[in-house]
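User: Could you check the structure of this?
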Amino acid sequence: MTYRIDNLQYANWSEKIFRQMREGGLDAVHVTIAYHETFRETVLNLEQWNRWFEQYPDLIMKGRWAGDVRTAHESGRTAIFFGFQNPSPIEDDIGLVEIWHDLGARFMQLTYNNQSLLATGCYEAEDAGITRMGKQVIKEMNRVGLVVDMSHSADRSTIEAADISERPIAITHANLHSWQSALRNKRDDVVRAVTENGGMMGFSMYPHHLKNKSDCTLQSFCEMIAMAAERFGPTHFGIGSDLCQDQPDSVVEWMRVGRWSKEIDYGEGSASAPGFPDQPEWFRDNRDFGNLEDGLRKVGFDEAEVAGILGDNWLRFYDENFGPAP
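Assistant: Sure, the predicted structure tokens are below.
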């Protein structure tokens, strides 16, 4: 049995998108429910998801454990797993780590692009590494089964997190810096630290992270995955598309700025085009997930490796890391 898992999306959710997930055969999707939200604001996002689970029980279901991916597959639905792209939902309270795991959160980035209470984001000039609080929060995340995600973190912080954490960590959505030198893409020493400690990395189809951006070809993308598999082993990789389908451009401002600045931070985008770039033609939405299967085969992956990258590797990671520490 093989599974299809996209381990990061932030779409403007709707029945249309839920149906497209089913058309693309997605058994599970890890969705962002917080960028800069406080605890209470994130709870409101949970309430909205509960309404969607009630409205569309034939399309989606809440995911808590790896077994829910299998249940979703068998029942023709998509399991939805929750995560944060910023530690803001725990505010400055380590006790909220366990509360959030109880509420269903399974991934938490220690930073977005800026310095946080826990670690340094990739846009800061100086990377001070994991903070005193960060070390304690990682320990607590390990204990309860909330996965450390370093997708937007700086290099030293990511390497330290991989070494400090007693359980494998994740980079849910990024690509190789050696393939495309976007600030958010990961250098080999960072990827090595994560994978040597048993961690996972999901490859992103967000155009600013792609070679030639929206014009990136499927072959080039899959050749990058092959490069990563050759260097670090194919079992450590999956997909984290970072699909932001149907989002208004105003959402980019919230993602990058939150409430920390009065100015617009365009990040890796162009100041003259601050909105969402067009997706590459081979991955417009969830219905195109199968194109990855064809592309991976064409660059030389065997069937087991293709199945691993499209979902089985993430499922194994879920099995081992979503529950309390043994």
